[in-house]
Write a structure and sequence with these properties.
Blueprint lengths: L1 H15 L12 H4 L1 H6 L6 H4 L11 E6 L8 E5 L5 E4 L1 H10 L7 H4 L1 E2 L7 E2 L3 E11 L1 H5 L8 H20 L5 E7 L4 E10 L1 E7 L2 H4 L3 H4 L11 E7 L13 E2 L8 E2 L8 E6 L10 H32 L1 H30 L2 H17 L2 H7 L2 H26 L4 H16 L5 H20 L3 H18 L7 H9 L4 H11 L5 H9 L3 H6 L1 H41 L14 E6 L14 E3 H6 L12 H9 L11 E6 L11 E3 L5 E8 L17 E5 H11 L3 H6 L2 E2 L1
Parallel strand pairs: 12-20
Antiparallel strand pairs: 1-2, 1-6, 2-3, 3-10, 4-9, 5-9, 6-8, 7-8, 9-10, 10-11, 13-14, 13-17, 15-16, 16-19, 17-18, 18-19
The structure holds arginine.
Arginine binds next to helix 10, helix 12 and strand 18.
């Protein structure tokens, strides 16, 4: 009986350890978090996770970026072998898989596996960063700043001191550094990475598994998706970063994560390391309103139209389906997010939660004359400036969605600059040859995934949405041209565009580059569309600069005040594409009244969801066979665990992140969040927020049994 009582008390204790908000900075773990993490079950020390002298878990954590913007990590990944093998999500590698696909080799549909190194596929432009170390440089930066400076002065000072700090740190190394602001500009951190530039595709399951459930299941639990793909990092023969070259060799990492087949159970400790992109946890109730009305609502409305056009065209033709697959997925992900976030923000009364914090802040400020002088205007200024900002933000969202809707106009604008130079008499013939070559290459890349009819339809429909929703005085020239010359007939405009613009097909473009004419360019409808939309974007953005600067200042003061108000609290910095750790545990939840969601799903659950061929729940034949044969060992006994949920604090960018158990072994890969707590990027919902992970055993089972890629299984360190 006594024993039972102790167990009951212990269970109560476990369930009262609630999810901890926070995407923590590794250099502060020892000071801020490690005690709590060990209390929750972690067996590692802070140094085993992050050490700048010896190898540690952080050496296996990778941020995926692009050559032009290597610090803006679009996804996360982790190293799982001594030969630089990387695990990330299928949806993170989707663009790579798509770019290698054609009607003849449809890797999206069929999957892709390299059974030997030579078969791995290069992905120029993709980068893989591994953090060397990070440092708090707040004192050095803040010493040069004060509250009286204008936003512009501040930026100039921050930029120049950051350059100095980065240059010092990079000196005599192969590292790339970046200074990042934290807590709305109250703190600054230096991050130093080794950035690898030869990242090859190793394997991906068929889309029917890797993207199982499609848009219907996206952002949802229960989930049954094999959302993984494998890359490999290559380095120069001496181990240093190098762009793709035949003689490059697989990276020998400082650390790789062993992959566990032990599995997880309710309450188990789990930590996730990766590169969360952006959160807005210190947003005020006033800012919240703008996010809902000026971003989410509009984005959802416009993208619904865009997705309808693409979906119809993709259903009709295999080539179009492949060409637009990645564009479609990129558009639909935040289309659904916007909708679900507004729903959750209303449902959970996030505005009310924000108002409570603001009231506490105001009371604290008003209780002291010095504080009043420092922070007295913060909330009223934020309120006023957000109100001023709203109309501009709405127009900007429409402009942004119209600019990113069809494609020929923005391509015309990029190519147009070069064509203008090409037509300039002052340009030397040598430079002209270079420009021509550059334009041809741009064209090849752009038109590979371009369909004239689809783009014309997007012009017709999205420009019309723009016309209907934005005030006349904010119409770009092209919209007024359509309203007058084409009498508001957007279809007629689109047919004319298709017939006449040199940017609407590869053949017309190539011919134009051979015989360019500045006069013809100026009259080209796609070119006018691009130019006039970009011009209007500038016009609309100009007045927002001043508002933006005021907002930035007051947000900085607001966060500074909050931290002063509660100095004992471990404050978590908003996500900003830098490496973070979040700890928590495996856990079921109750999404709404009378509903209980268990913490894992199974292969039998996948099979039970089978839908029509070609649809979002299409079923792979081989998967069905393996399930029927119960060929599960050693990854499962009666079934295979597919996905599981934890209460870790993650966001977009964390996709592909390592989910690690108490011993430092990989138990899964994070790939999504749950719709009920989609407000989480703005206000962490400790009882409701869940992180959706792929179970490592499903991944291993697919690689082993479905793909038969023993070569990959053999190079991993698998913990039985
Ligand atoms: N919602 C996921 C994320 O943002 C992406 C999931 C991709 N899957 C899909 N069915 N679209 O990380």
């Amino acid at each position: 009986m006594k024993k039972l009582l102790i167990i009951v008390i212990a269970l109560l204790a476990i369930s009262s350890v609630r999810a901890d908000e926070g995407m923590w900075l590794l250099s502060k773990l020892r000071q801020q978090n490690i005690g709590k993490m060990q209390e929750m079950g972690l067996k590692l020390t802070a140094e085993e996770i992050y050490d700048i002298n010896k190898s540690s878990v952080k050496d296996a954590i990778v941020g995926l970026g692009r050559l032009g913007a290597p610090f803006r990590h679009f996804c996360s990944a982790e190293i799982v072998s001594s030969k630089g093998l990387l695990v990330t999500n299928h949806h993170c590698a989707f663009g790579s898989i798509q770019s290698h696909s054609s009607v003849e080799h449809d890797y999206l549909k069929d999957g892709f596996w390299a059974y030997k190194l030579e078969d791995e596929l290069t992905n120029p432009g993709i980068t893989a960063s591994i953090l060397d170390r990070m440092e708090d440089v707040s004192e050095r930066v803040n010493a040069l700043l004060n509250d009286e400076m204008s936003g512009k002065e501040r930026r100039t000072v921050i930029d120049s001191i950051s350059k100095v700090i980065v240059k010092e740190a990079e000196k005599d190394t192969k590292l790339s550094g970046q200074v990042q602001s934290m807590f709305e500009g109250n703190q600054y951190y230096l991050f130093l990475y080794t950035i690898y530039k030869d990242v090859r595709l190793v394997g991906a399951p068929p889309q029917s598994m890797g993207k199982f459930g499609g848009d219907t299941d996206n952002w949802m639990w229960p989930r049954h998706t094999a959302d993984f793909a494998l890359y490999r990092i290559y380095a120069a023969p001496d181990g240093t970063p190098a762009e793709y070259a035949k003689e490059n060799v697989p990276l020998k990492p400082k650390h790789h994560l062993p992959v566990s087949t032990e599995g997880v159970k309710e309450g188990d400790f789990a930590m996730i390391m990766g590169f969360p992109g952006s959160t807005d946890r210190y947003l005020t109730s006033y800012g919240l309103e703008n996010t809902m009305d000026a971003t989410n609502d509009i984005r959802y409305k416009v993208r619904t139209v865009k997705l309808d056009v693409m979906r119809a065209a993709m259903a009709k033709d295999q080539k179009t389906r492949i060409q637009y697959a990645s564009k479609y997925a990129g558009c639909s992900n935040y289309w659904k997010y916007s909708f679900e976030q507004n729903k959750a923000l209303k449902q959970l009364n996030t505005k009310g939660n924000k108002e409570i914090v603001e009231k506490q802040f105001a009371d604290w400020v008003n209780a002291d004359a010095k504080r009043k002088a420092e922070y007295g205007d913060v909330l009223s200024t934020l309120k006023a400036e957000y109100a001023k900002m709203k109309a501009y933000e709405m127009t900007r969202t429409y402009l942004f969605e119209a600019l990113g809707g069809p494609e020929a106009h923005t391509f015309a604008s990029r190519a147009g600059d070069l064509i203008t130079k090409l037509c300039d008499k002052e340009t030397s013939s040598e430079d002209k040859a270079k420009l021509k070559k550059q334009l041809q290459e741009m064209g090849e890349k752009f038109y590979k995934d371009f369909n004239t009819d689809v783009d014309a339809q997007l012009f017709a429909q999205l420009f019309e949405v723009f016309n209907e929703n934005v005030a006349v005085e904010l119409h770009p020239e092209i919209i007024e041209l359509i309203n007058t010359k084409y009498k508001g007939d957007y279809e007629a405009f689109a047919s004319e565009l298709k017939a006449k613009s040199v940017f609407m097909s590869e053949s017309a473009f190539t011919a134009f580059v051979e015989k360019p004419s500045a006069k013809k360019l100026e009259k080209d409808l796609a070119y006018i569309a691009g130019k006039s939309f970009f011009d209007m974007m500038k016009t609309v953005s100009a007045p927002t600069k001043e508002i933006g600067e005021k907002l930035a200042k007051e947000k900085r003061l607001f966060v500074r005040g909050l931290m002063e108000m509660n100095p004992a609290k471990a404050w978590g910095a908003d996500a900003n594409s830098t490496l973070r750790l979040t700890y928590g545990k495996v856990g079921s939840y109750e999404p709404r009244d009378a509903v209980f969601y268990d913490y894992y799903t199974t292969l039998s659950g996948v099979i039970a969801k089978e839908g029509a061929d070609g649809g979002e729940f299409e079923m792979d034949d081989k998967l069905k066979e393996l399930h029927a044969k119960k060929d599960f060992a050693p990854y499962g006994v009666d079934d295979i665990h597919v996905n599981f949920i934890t209460d870790n604090d993650i966001t977009g960018g964390n996709s592909g992140s390592a989910v690690i158990n108490a011993k430092g072994h990989l138990i899964g890969t994070a790939f999504d969040g749950n719709s009920e707590a989609m407000s989480g990027d703005i206000d962490f919902e400790e009882n409701l927020q869940r992180c959706i992970n792929l179970d490592a055993r499903y991944m291993l089972w697919i690689i082993d049994k479905h793909a038969g890629a023993k070569n990959l299984i053999n190079e991993m360190t698998i913990i039985k």
